Amino acid sequence: MNRPMIEAADLSKRFDVGGGFLKPSRLLHAVDGVSLSVNKGETFAIVGESGCGKSTLARLLMRLLTPSSGRITIEGHDISDIAGADLRQLRRDVQFIFQDPFSSLNPRLTVAKLVAEPLEAHRPEMTASQRRAEVARLLSQVGLRPEHMDRFPHEFSGGQRQRIGIARALASGPRVLIGDEPVSALDVSVQAQVINLLSDLRDSLGLTLIVIAHDLAVIRQMSDRVAVMYLGRIVETGPTDAIFERPRHPYTRALLAAIPGPDGGGGAGLAGETPSPIDPPTGCHFRTRCEFARDECARTRPPAEPTGEMSEVACLRWRDIGEATDVMPVAPKRSAAAEARFRLYRDAMGQTENNSQQGNNR
Ligand SMILES: Nc1ncnc2c1ncn2[C@@H]1O[C@H](COP(=O)(O)OP(=O)(O)OP(=O)(O)O)[C@@H](O)[C@H]1O
C-alpha cells in the first residue's frame, strides 16, 4: 500500500497569458512547485477553491500538459518529457474520468461503440467478436447490463452514463484513474453508488485513484489521503481523518469552517478574494487572508514540514497556532455578516481580541 505509484517533485506549470500591446508577457502560475507522492492502491484527493490549480495538476500528472519545470515519475519511471511510444503507454496506464457524463460521451454512438473505441486504440489485435465480448465484460464490471450495449447514451440515467465513462476508462487496462469531479454532476443519491463502484474497482483491480473534488463530504467519504491546494501550491497533506479532524493549516481550517452546519446554515468560512495567480503574494500565498500571518510570512515561502501522523503542512506558524480541535474562520477582510459570525464564534471559542489582531501586520 505504501509504495509510491505517482510522485511529483517541485512541479510547476506556468501559462503565458500575454501582456498586451507593447507590454511584457505575463505568466500565470497555475501550479507552483508542487511535490507529492501517491501510494499504490490508495485514493488520493486534491481539494481547494476554484482556480487553485487542481485540474492543471491532474493534467500534468497525466501528461496532457507538459510541466514548465519539475519531475513526475510513475513507479519510478520519469514521465516528465516522454513522447511517442512511451506517451502512448502512459495513455493506457493512466486514464481520466470526466466530470460531466453528458458531454463526454458522443450522443451518436451506441454504448457498444463508445466502449469499443478505446479498445480499438489500445488493443488493436482484438477481433470484432472479441471486442464485443470485452465490451460486455467491461459493462458488467461497472454494474451495467451488457444486453443494453446497443442503446444510445441518452437512454441512460446520469449515474449509468458515468458508469459508461468508467467502462471506457477501464478498457485500456489502466493502473491509475484520475477523476476530475467524478460525481459532482450526479444527484446526491447516485453519487454514493458511483463512489462505491470506484472504491470496489480500486480494490478488485488494484487501481490507484486520484480524485479532484470541491465537495468535502465526497472527499471524506472516498479518500485515504488528502492534499489541500491554495493558489497553485499544496499547503497541507495528510490522512483524511487527520485533515478533517485536526487540520493545521489556516486555509484548511477555513475550508472546513465553510462546510454548512447540520442546520443548513453556512459555516463561518473563508472571506476575502483569492489573489491573482498572475501576481501572487510573496512568501506564503495565503498570508493576505490569514489571521495568523506575520511579517516573516511575506518574506519566506513556507516549506512543507512533517507534523506527525504522516501529515505535512506548509505554514511558518503551524507550531505556534497548534492544531485545530475545532475549525475556526480566518480572514482579515470579512464582510459585516461574516464579521458578526466570527465574533460570535470567537467568543464561543473563548479567544482573546489580542489573537484576532495578530494578523494585522501585513
Ligand atoms: N490553458 C490555460 N491558459 C491560461 N490559464 C490557464 C489555463 N488553464 C488553466 N489556467 C488558469 O490556471 C489557474 C488554475 O486553473 P485550474 O483549472 O487548474 O484550477 P481548478 O482548481 O481546477 O479550478 P476549477 O475547480 O474551477 O476547475 C486558473 O487561474 C486558470 O484560469
TrEMBL record:
Transmembrane segments: none
GO terms, molecular function: ATP binding
Topology in the lipid bilayer: Peripheral membrane protein
InterPro entries: AAA+_ATPase (IPR003593), ABC_transp_ATP-bind (IPR050319), ABC_transporter-like_ATP-bd (IPR003439), ABC_transporter-like_CS (IPR017871), Oligopep_ABC_C (IPR013563), P-loop_NTPase (IPR027417)
Keyword list, A-Z: ATP-binding, Nucleotide-binding, Transport
Pfam family, one: ABC_tran
Subcellular compartments: Cell inner membrane
Every ABC transporter domain range: 6-256
Keyword presence, DNA repair: no
SMART domains: AAA
Family, as annotated: Belongs to the ABC transporter superfamily.
PANTHER family cross-referenced by the UniProt entry: D,D-DIPEPTIDE TRANSPORT ATP-BINDING PROTEIN DDPF-RELATED, TRANSPORT ATP-BINDING PROTEIN
Protein name in the entry: ATP-binding cassette domain-containing protein
Organism lineage: Bacteria, Pseudomonadati, Pseudomonadota, Alphaproteobacteria, Rhodobacterales
